[in-house]
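Allow me, if you will, to draw on your knowledge of protein folds for a short while. I have a record of one protein: its chain in single-letter code and its fold written as discrete structure tokens. I should value your view on which stretches of the chain appear to form regular backbone elements. Thank you for your consideration; the sequence and its tokens are set out here:
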Amino acid sequence: MFPGISIPAEGLPSFMAGEAWAVKVPGNPAPIAVGTTTMSCTEALKAGLPGKALKIAHYYGDLLWESVEGPYVPNAGFLEDAVFEDPTLSSAQISASFDGANDGSQDQLNGIDDEEMGQHVDVADVKSEPSSASVALLRK
């Protein structure tokens, strides 16, 4: 749903209805779902960003994912029933800050802000709707 999408400071990116996009958890570079936009950016803004943003085609843990022998798990943030930020990215940032090398600009370059750290998405939420406050969209 549009109300659960993290919109960047520069605003909503341009998109057309039917474009392929990916859903990710802030702080985790791997997508948790893919789908197509339900309306254009212009239509969404004109309507006040209501309703579903994507028609989800596939998501982490769905039947397609389970049908593969030894399915691929992108990183340690992907648990059986929830997806969190990638802890290897978080620990690298923490290590850098202890070394005095991280002044916060690295988080901005990675698209991570302090409010997003520690958030997660329950995989069950993605199955029905992409509507968590900790969901960000990425253009495919």
Notes: DSSP finds five helices and six strands in the chain. The chain has one domain: 2-139. The longest helix spans residues 87-98.
